[in-house]
Each structure stands twice: as C-alpha cells, then as structure tokens.
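Newbie here. two chains, one complex. Structure please?
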Amino acid sequence: MSRAGKPRRGTDAGPEHWAHRPVVAYPGFDVMRQADHWDPSTRALITRRVRDIPPIRFFTRAEAHLLTAVVDRILPQDDRSPDERIPIVPWIDARCFERITDGWRLEDLPPDEEAWRLGLRGIDQTARIRFGASFMELSEAQQDEVLRLVASGQPPGSIWQQLPARRFWIFIVLQQVCAIYYAHPTAWSEIGFGGPAYPRGYFALNRGDPEPWETREVRLDATADSP
Amino acid sequence: MRLQIHLSPQWVLDTEMREYRPSEAVDFCIVGTGAGGAVLAQRLARYGFSVVCVEAGDWLDSERDMVSDEAGARSLYWNDLRITGGTEPLILGGNNSGKAVGGSTVHYAAFCPRFHPSDFRVRSLDGVADDWPISYADLAPYYEQMEREYPVAGPAYFPWGQPHGYPYAPLQMGTAGQVLVRGCVALGIPVCIGGPIAITSGSFGRRPHCIFRGFCLQGCKVGSKHSTLVSHIPDAIEHGAEIRARCMAFEIPVGRDGRVTGVRYYRTTDEGTYVEEEQRARFVVVAGYAIETPRLLLNSRSGRFPDGLANSSGLVGKRLMAQAGQVVWGRFPEMIRQYKAPPACAETEEFYETDPRNDFVRGYSIQTVSPLPIAMAHLITQETGAFGWELRHLMEEYNHYAAIGVLGELLPDERNYVDIADEVDQYGIPVAHVHFNLFENDRRLIRAAVQRAREILEAAGAEETHYVDRYAHLVGTCRMGSDPRTSVVDQYCRAWDVPNLFICDGSVLVTQGAANPALTISAIAARTADYIRNAAARREL
C-alpha cells in the first residue's frame, strides 16, 4: 500500500527527498479572516491560541533546544518565515508544566512529562550510538534516521528499556505535536479546512464544493488531479 | 438554585432548581447524568420521587462553554487519570467518556440505532457470550419512546433487525456521507441515509435544526444534536429533580442492615477546593458508565462487602466490552471536505448478523466517521508513524479523504476488565486500570469488516485505502442476568446483593451488538423507571 499517494514532482528517491514546500494550495484562503463570523467564545479561544504563546517553564534550556530540533523534523516549517511558523514546543512545555492529561495513560508508559524527559534523553542516546554525536550536531538526514529508529520501535540505547519507543513515538510525540500544529489556523488554511462555522453553518454540502468564502484547491505538483 | 444556561442560541434554561440538603434523605440519589442516569432521573421525578443527581462534571452553557474547535473541546471530556493496557489498550478521554452534565452524550456523534432481536439471544443462536434476561420485545416500547424523546431522525422504513420507522425525517448529508452511499450502491449493499441519528432534521421544541457545522463531537452549540443535557435534564429539573454538578462520588456507604445509605462525594467549590459531603438516600443508582461505575463499586469496600459493593459474583468490572471501531479512509481524486455536516450521517447494518459463510460469529455495521484535522492527523500518524514533509504532504490531502468506520461486535470475556490501580486521581481516589484484549473471533470479525469497508471505499472511487485500529464505546462490567451467581444486577438493573442499589448505564449490557449503545442504555433506564414506579405502587420496592 502506498502511503502518500503519488510521488511528487522532482522526487524519485523516497520521502526524504520530497520537496520542502507544499504541493497543495488554497490561494488567498486565510481562516483567520473569517473570525468575525465566529461566535465570541470560539473567536476568543482561537485568538488567544495564536497570540498568547506560553513561556518555557518545564523543560531546561538544553531540553527545549533538543525538543525544538526534534519537532522541526516532525513538522518542518522551513517553507515559512520564522514569524509565520506555528509554535509547538511552548505548548508541549505548557502541557508538561501544568500536568495536563487526556484522561488515559498507557500502562507501560510513565506520566507524560516524565516520558517526554526520558524520551528526549533516549533520542540523544540513540543519536550518539548511531552517529557518535548528539542529536543537535547531526545533519537533517541523520536526525531523520534517528527518529525513524525511534518510530520503528527498536532504537539502540538503554533508555528505551524503560520507555517503549514505538508507543512513545505514536501516542505521545506524534499525537501531541499533531494536536498542537493542526489546532492552529495557519495549518487550517494550509490544508483548506474551513474551521469554525457557528452561527453561520456550512451550506455547500455536495461535490466537495467550497463555501462562497472558501477557495478552491490548486495543485502545485505535476499530478494536478483535482477538478 | 437559579440556573441560567444556554441550551441553544434561543433557549436559556432559566429556572429555579430545587435543592435538597445532603442530610435530608431523598428517594433516589443517582450518580451520573448521561444516557442512563438522566433518563432515569427524569422519569423518577415525573413519577413523584425526590431525586438528586450527583454529577462529576459541570454545567455547560452552549454559547459560553462550547466552541467550534477540536482542541478547545477538551473541557467536555473525562480527562482525569485512568490507566489503560492489555493487547489493545483502549484510548479513553475524548474518545468515549464525558465529564459534564449530560455525560458523554454531550459529545457523542449521536448515531442511535436499536439493537437487533438476535442481540438478546446470542448464546442460544450462536453459542457464544450469554443470552440477556430480557428480549427485544421487552425493550421495543422504550426504544419507541426514546426515538421520540431524543429525538431520532432516520428513514420511514428501516430494514434491519426488527424493521421499524423513524418519527423524524432523515438529515441531509455532506459529501463524505455520499461517498459511503455511493460505494454501497455500487456493490449492491443496502445503505441507510441520514440516520438513525439523534440530530433534529426540523426544529424540535426550542431546539433549532442542524446547521451542518460539523463539530458534533465538540458539543453542539446549536442544540440540534441530542444530549441528555438538552433532552431529559430540563424536564427532570422542571419536575423537581436536583442536578448537583461538580460532585465526584467516591464511596457508597452501607448500613448495618446491608442497605446502602447514600452517596459520599467531593464537591468542588468555586475556589477549586474539594469539600466532602454525603447525600443520604433511600435508594442509590450508579450510572457512571462502564469504567466509573465499577470503579465506584470496587472502591466502596466494607466489612460486609470486602470485594467491593454488589460484587458477590466477582463480576463487577469484568466483561468490559468496546466495539471494534476501526477507521478506514480512502483518498479520492475529487474534493470531499469531510469536515462539513455531522460526522454521523449514513450507515449499513447489512453485515450485522451471524453469517454462516463467515469464519466468525456475530457481525458489524459500517458508518460514516469524517474526522476533523487533528483526529485525521492522529489516524495518519498512528498508521504509519510518519513525520517530516511526508506527514505534511499526507495532511495536505485532508480535503481528499473520506473516512468511514467499522462498528463491530466484540464478545464479552472475563479477561477484559476494570480494576483499581495503585495510583490516585486529583481527588485522592484510587483510579481505574482498564484491561482490554482481542480474541480469535474478534480478530476475524475485524479483518472481514475492514476488508468490507475498503471495498466500499474503492467502489466509491478511492485511489488508495488505509486503516487504523480503534475501539469505541464502553459497556459491560456490571452485567444483568437471571442468576445472582453469574450477574451483578437483575433485569430491572437492581443489584442482587443490595436491595436498594440500582446500576443503570452501559455497564449492565450483556452483549453490545453492532449498534451504538446510547439509545439502548436510555431504553433500559426508562424500563427500569417503570419497574420502580410499579414496584413502589405495589409496595414491593
């Protein structure tokens, strides 16, 4: 089963060579420009999320740097200027600092904040075993190789004896990073998600049509297969 | 106490709610206000009993406390600590548990099919699990009541199980629902459009109809989707029931005569502190759903009940069931925009029953799912572990995905259970440890169901399909039965061991069928209420 649909233009060697830019665009679509049509509670919540970025309170400076490097490989934003990027690390830190949980913990994982701390040490340990240098010193390709080892569930390193790597990767790292990234209006605009629609509602329910205030998709890759 | 709570844009529940003193013994103290507790409270209040509901969650004002936002909906969920394990650890929290007045009905998708007649006789028919102490015919009148009270929209003729019709017209679907219909039609599979779902297809009382905003799982700001918060709780209050919010039950005390005397709970004050109180009651009903109910009973140990309250059978917490909820999605060349319209809108129950051609017994339904972006990203990463630009590209295709879901019957097994962990929650109450495993019939059923869902998506034009394992709904753990040695409650949800204790929620279910459980839970509660009224009239309570 293919995982990503068709290969992208100019790519012939697998995911690591994929273009570092989107292949889909919704030109001119900015969800935040619809905020006046949202109800006050939703508007206040999303506005706070965009504007009020929490300070780093849980992770040490070194941990925060390492986590930033990891998150940059999980959801890279090198197509955006620094001030356009979706902040992720501050929200992970806030979760850990405030001990926010989602109502469940896998029986073989420690509490989230301990798992993050342990997992970061594990990632760095795997980097040193595999490449003889800390994660921060590796090339992007080497960093990706380390993360693929973690994702595989069998990374080298003693720390992973205490922390099941695959479950840590799927249920803590990817789950939380994705929940933060795809909660941001910039990500909604990126993927053409119309976002909040109360009290206005959605009307164009057929054929995947856009609302009058949404825009049509434009394919930037060679496989322009959208009507 | 004065309540002023928006239940819809036009409807403020603006009323004086009766309040009881905790020291004043009421007829019924009910723990929980979800599909079971709220319906029972409403019925008992109407029948003239004094009722206090102790609810762990808070009141939600639809205008103030509900948002059109995935991440922002976490305040609706049960986020307190639970430990989850086994071969298939259940993802809890927002997936299947709520902490609010209205329980998880506040954020359920509102698929409301009935169980089939065969569900009540699986031992007789298929040689697995157990027969229920009641039949479909016993519940049928209560299904009809609930379909009018929720209310449920659906076709005028529904062909599966015991054929019946729905009182309210099918709801309009979005493009994602049309994908399921198109795939089924292409394969000659009967499919049901626009229901059965508890979303109003026209105005219903002070509840307006649906605006297709798509955030059903985040709480309906419109008041169109059913929850007990908008269906039964206002009526319960009008008839004198008190809903005591932000009160976390931790023990049901027992008197020297072996009868329970009330409910002990921690009330959260406006300052965020916890105050211990005890509501005295002549009867106690536990309706906390399949994890919190056994947790409360197992935490209510006493000299008389050293293994937990009502647990002489040893079955409290045992036979936990969740349904196979594998999500199967396809990428389509055309646009889908699956975020529009309610995620619940079409289904087929064509594969619900045992089919001798299968290598498993019992069956499955297939329903629309339509995840919003965060949920979609979780599916993709759970399937592949993907990251980097690969992940961003996969998510760029969001508007080309249509996701449908299996709803498969997994069989009860004592190796699936809830017990008490060593850790405590923020109140200091020992937390639940949930153990869930799959067995051979389950695995075969899932394999076939996922394959069927893939075929449907491919027949609808999907270029590729994917799936991840997921489990939905929580039932079992305090099963009903006709023998005190092999069940926790009788057919009227009365605990065998304690004459003035009832358990009235999804935990009493013997099997789970391939139907979403809310309507059945409410129907059982309504039946229990009638039993209580009649027994009280005969002075047999």
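Moderator note: Helices of chain A lie at 40-51, 61-74, 89-97, 112-131, 140-152, 165-181, 185-191. Strands of chain A lie at 24-25, 105-106, 218-219. Thread marked as resolved.
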